[in-house]
Every structure is written in structure tokens, then in C-alpha cells.
Amino acid sequence: DFEGKGDVPERIKTLPELKEEVRVLPDLLVKPVGPEDGVVVRTAIPELKVRRRGSPEGHHIQYYFEIDLDPTFTSPWKQASTDEPWLFQAIKPRVIGVGFAIALGSYIVLSLFGLPILLIFGYVRSLTTIPHWMATEIIGALLARYYFWNKYGKQQWRLYAAVLSVGFAAGMALTGMAAIAIALIQKSVSVLIF
Q1: CA distances from 182 to 173, 174, 188, 189 (A)
Q2: What is the pTM of this model?
């Protein structure tokens, strides 16, 4: 209540009171309310409050607060206003430790049963793919097992398969980039009517 007409609101009573009181004019009392001096405020728009008693006629009153940057740079809104990358917040030791423990446990279990390590990668990949892609992968696996292994041999076909898959992926990427380049050129060129 800056006009001195009523009691101090409850939300202001909870703020820490500062030590200093400033008397600018004989009938004007200015007292800082909050936040406390030296406290790190971690909100995007901090509320800096003072309490004054008395309202001298003909005087224009301004309040100045001296603020400094957050020394720890931990405010979540800082990414929008500073160059602190949020990528650094992704490093969580607990999550890394749990992931390492699960990976180590999976490796030990697969080794005990004589299963391939790629079983884990295949399972994780299956969680992120569209279901109908599985049909073409099964057809490809059956072709590899019952046709190409007999024609080229198991070891030689595995060498060929790696080269074929990398070549296919590179070809798809180059074709996609060429299509995007043609589309961008087409959209940037306009046809003149005359």
C-alpha cells in the first residue's frame, strides 16, 4: 500500500525487509521491501519493491535499484536472453549412470546366453520405426538367408550387404538433396508474363 491508506498486504509481509531506511524529504520515508540485498533472483521479471510513507506535493519521486547478473547462470529463462546453451543441462550424471548400468547388465546377460549384441540395437530401432516397414525387412532378411547366402556365401554376403546398405543410404541422401535443390530453384524463379 504505497499511498498509506491501509494495511500492508499479506504477500508483502512475507518478503524479507532490508535494513536501510532512506529519508529523502522530512515528510517522506522510503524503505526497501524486497528482494533482500545480495539474493539471487531466478525469475524472468523480478519484483523490486519499496515502501514509502508520505506523498509530498509537487515532487516527482523515482526509485533506482542496482542489479547484477545471476552469478551462477542457472535461471531457466536465460536461454532466451543469453548465449547459455541448454545442451549443458542435458548432462545428468544419474541418467548417464543408470544407462551405463543397463548397458553393462544387458551385455553380460547377452554374453551369458551367447546372443548377439546387435539384438539391443535392433530392439531399440524397432521401437522407433513404422510397423509396416517390418514386412520389407523380413522379406530382405529371408532373401539374404535363403538366396544370397547360398549364392555368395555367408561371410562374403555380409561384406556385400554392408556396402549395399551404405550405398543405398548415400544414394537416397543425394537424390533427396538434388530434389530439394531443384524445388528451391524452381520456387525462387518467377516467370515473366511478357
Answers
A1: 14, 12, 10, 11
A2: 0.35
| pLDDT tens-digit map of 14-61 | 444 545 555 556 667 777 787 777 777 767 677 778 777 776 666 666
Q: Are 31 and 25 in contact (CB under 8 A)?
A: no
- Going 20 to 25 to 29 to 33, the CA torsion angle's sign is negative
Residue 183 φ then ψ, to 5°: -65, -40
CA angle (65 as vertex; 61, 70 as ends), nearest 5: 165
Instruction: Give which of 60, 14, 18, 56 is closest to 37, Cα–Cα.
Output: 18
The residue to which cell 545442451 is assigned: 87
Phi, psi of 53 (to 5 degrees): -120, 135
